[in-house]
Amino acid sequence: MSDHQDEPRPALAGIPTPPARLQTIDKTVLEAQFQSLVASLDAARAANDSQRCLTLALQTHEIELEIQGRMLRDAQEALRISRDHYVKLFDDAPVGYVVFNRRGLIRSTNLTAAGLLGHPRAQLEGCPFKRFVIGAQIRGFLEHLRQVFDEGVTPPRVCDLVLHLRDPAPARVVRLCSIRRDGLLGPECLTALSDVTAEQEAESQRLASDRLRQSVLDALTSQIAVLDANGRILTANRAWRQASSEHGAYDDLREALGLNAGAPARRVDDQPGEAVLSAARGIREVIQRKRDDFSIEYPCDTAQGQRWLLMRVLPLEGEQEGAVVAYLDITERHRAEEEARRARDALAQVARLNAVGILASSLIHELLQPLSSAGFYCSAATQLAQGPAANPGRLVEVIRRIDDQVHRAGDIMERLRAFLRGRKMYKVSVALEQMLKRAFEMVLWFASDRRVQLKLNAPDGLPAIQTDPVQIEQVLVNLICNAVQAIDAANCPRREVVLDVIPSEREIELIVRDTGPGLPAGRHEAVFDIFESTSDSSFGLGLAISRAIAEAHGGRLWAESSPPEGAVFHLILPVTDRDDDGLDDSFP
Question: Which of 9, 276, 291, 545 could form a disulfide with 272 if both were Cys (CB 3.0 to 4.6 A apart)?
Answer without folding.
Answer: 276
